[in-house]
Specification:
Number of domains: 2
Oligomer: single chain
Largest sheet: 4 strands, parallel
CATH class of the largest domain: Alpha Beta
CATH superfamily of the largest domain: HUPs
Number of helices: 12
CATH architecture of the largest domain: 3-Layer(aba) Sandwich
Shape: globular
Radius of gyration: 19 Å
Low-confidence stretches: 257-270
Number of strands: 7
Strand order of the largest sheet: 3-2-1-4
Order of helices and strands: HEHEHEHHEHHHHEEHHEH
Structural class: alpha/beta
Helix content: 40-55%
Mean pLDDT: 93
Length: 270
């Protein structure tokens, strides 16, 4: 039995499912597998909120169309939750509670058996309070259950011709705000403008970290050299978003690095 057959068999046995669908490669793979295994008994649902980066919704729609799965949008109100706004280490827990509350209600109302997520095996080594929220809602993680890590996720997405197979990770805009600094809609819009400006310059893998008047730019190792050699366009793009000061981090960006360090610290303390 191939890995795809294994995953499809697991999902088919669920009967019907709503997929928590961001359009990233993980949830896109699960959506594609669900469409193959369940047909019209699968539905991909994308949450729309102020923390969703520009362009992500269009990308999710294209992936859903290519995968042949029904696709709907819901509005989530994470900013209405104090635990989310306070932006402490468990911010993602409150965000996912909001998401899964709404997805579970939709699934119950429409007769879907379960909610699926794109969590993969590599997430277990990271700081992921959202997994606790998922557990509380009975969310099923087919990739994680099967021991599928990020590298294999991309391999399977290529095999199944999922359009987002090479898409860089793009977590919510709130992840650019330091823990302890309140999440504010105006700040989220500012970060989004700054990152759009950098994408317009051709950069693909990036983050603009928000430190008040300072915007700190993180870029992939492949793109960092160009920015350091010609910093003026980068600085101008971020300043245009309203930052008084701009820094380009000379260390290459690595997705999840802050979470990994925090998870390691917790293990040492424990």
């Amino acid at each position: 039995m191939t890995r795809v057959e294994q995953l499809e068999g697991r999902i088919a046995g669920l009967g019907s499912a709503v997929v928590a669908f961001s359009g990233g490669v993980d949830s896109s793979l699960v959506a594609c597998l669900a469409a193959r295994a369940l047909g019209d008994r699968a539905l991909a649902v994308t949450a729309v909120s102020p923390a969703l980066a520009s362009g992500e919704l269009d990308g999710a729609s294209r992936v859903a169309g290519a995968s042949g799965i029904g696709h709907e949008l819901i509005q989530t109100e994470g900013l209405a939750r104090g635990g989310y706004r306070r932006n402490e280490r468990d911010r993602c827990y409150h965000c996912k509670i909001e998401l899964y509350d709404r997805l579970a209600a939709l699934a119950e109302r429409r007769g879907y058996e379960v909610v699926l997520s794109g969590a993969n095996a590599d997430d277990l080594g990271d700081w992921r309070p959202g997994l606790r929220a998922a557990e509380e809602h009975g969310v099923v993680h087919p990739l994680l259950e099967a021991g599928v890590g990020k590298e294999e996720v991309r391999e399977l997405a290529r095999v199944l011709r999922v359009p987002s197979a090479e898409k860089p990770a793009s977590p919510c805009l709130a992840s650019r705000i330091p823990h302890g600094t309140e999440v504010d809609p105006a700040v989220l819009r500012q970060i989004d403008r700054a990152e759009l400006g950098l994408k317009a310059l051709g950069f693909r893998v990036l983050r603009v970290r928000h430190y008040g008047e300072l915007g700190r730019v993180e870029l992939s190792e492949e793109e960092l050299t160009r920015a350091l050699e010609q910093p003026e366009p980068v600085i101008s793009a971020v300043r245009s978003a309203g930052y008084a000061r701009v820094e380009i981090d000379e260390r290459p960006f690595r997705s999840g690095s802050l979470n990994v360090r925090f998870a390691r610290k917790l293990r040492v303390q424990g």
